[in-house]
Design goal:
The protein has 307 residues and is of the alpha/beta class. It is 36% helix and 16% strand. The protein has ten helices and eight strands. Strand 7, helix 9 and strand 8 form a beta-alpha-beta unit. Helix 3 runs parallel beside helix 4 and helix 9 packs parallel to helix 10.
Length: 307
């Protein structure tokens, strides 16, 4: 596995509930770098990025807020993720709200396009995030990355996405909250939607393996975007967008173990952790433990309490 590069993205601008900017610090306190090193992988921490100043652009939707700040984050994250991949690393972007994926996936797409490899996206999230700046009613831009990545119109304020990912290379996994406008738009795109009903019926293995086989057959790169609300709020309360009925502890670890066994992951987002809402760090520790599974930690490596 390539050298892991940690990139802090303390971005709070994609939604209105303060606290996600503390996410990168929480991951460090929960021992993310040490865990990766203990598993035998190289790890470099590039520190936290700072948002460049961007002039506020016009936006026809008055609900949209913090557009200039999100544009700044998108620009710098795109550059840094591209830099990390160019250096031969596996970037892990520690967020920060999910608007950071506007930049992280753009950086991965720029690198993939330049090197002639197809990029695939696995979106582990309760939400489809398929709004555009023109369709969002909340004005929260953390609900727009997949639309930007897929090449939907309405992102004129943003730099053109380097190489929009075709719908058949995008897999939404664990979805259970979709707005009507997003649902209508998704019907026009051939994106694989593995919502919780699908996972209840089929389990997590069959649909995920099917997607991973597709990535492997194309010799593609795989960007994984892991939102805290992919998990059930009973085990991961530290998120401002809780939706009941998420994945269990074992389901989430199984997803990560399968991703490790595939050897296909080339970049990773950890998003929407709000330590202010956590219960004594349990969500941060769980997210770090999930990264451990992605990096090769096995069930028998986990300490168990004495009976």
């Amino acid at each position: 596995m390539p050298n892991t590069i940690l990139i802090g993205a303390p971005i709070d601008a994609g939604q209105r509930r303060a606290g996600c900017l503390m996410g990168p610090a929480a991951y460090r306190v929960a021992g993310l770098a040490q865990l990766i090193a203990d598993l035998g992988h190289g790890v470099d921490d590039w520190g936290d990025l700072a948002c460049p100043v961007v002039a506020p652009p016009p936006c026809p939707n008055p609900a949209v807020h913090s557009l200039a700040e999100v544009l700044g984050w998108t620009q710098i994250l795109s550059d840094k993720v591209d830099d990390a991949l160019t250096a031969g690393g596996l970037p892990i972007i520690m967020g920060g709200d999910h608007s950071l994926a506007l930049g992280s996936v753009a950086g991965a797409a720029a690198y993939a396009s330049r090197t002639g490899r197809p990029l695939f996206l696995l979106w582990l999230d309760a939400h489809s995030d398929f709004h555009t700046p023109l369709t969002t009613t909340t004005g929260n831009l953390h609900g727009t990355p997949v639309a930007y990545i897929a090449g939907r119109s309405g992102f004129e304020a943003f730099a053109p996405f380097p190489a929009p990912i075709p719908a058949d290379r995008i897999c939404l996994f664990g979805i259970r909250s979709v707005d009507p406008a997003e649902h209508a738009a998704l019907l026009d795109h051939d994106i694989a939607i593995n919502d919780m009903r699908v996972l209840d019926e089929l389990g997590v293995v069959a649909p995920l393996r099917s997607f991973l086989n597709q990535v492997a057959a194309a010799q593609g790169m795989l960007h994984v975007s892991l939102d805290v609300d992919f998990l059930d709020p009973s085990i991961a309360p530290a998120v401002g967008t809780t939706v009941p009925g998420g994945t269990t502890f074992r389901e989430a670890h199984l997803v990560m173990e399968l991703l490790h066994e595939s050897g296909l992951v080339t970049s990773l987002d950890l998003v929407e952790l709000n330590p202010f809402l956590d219960d004594r760090g349990m969500t941060a520790r769980l997210m770090v433990d999930l990264v451990g599974s992605l990096m090769g930690k096995k069930v028998f490596d986990r300490p168990t309490r004495a009976k």
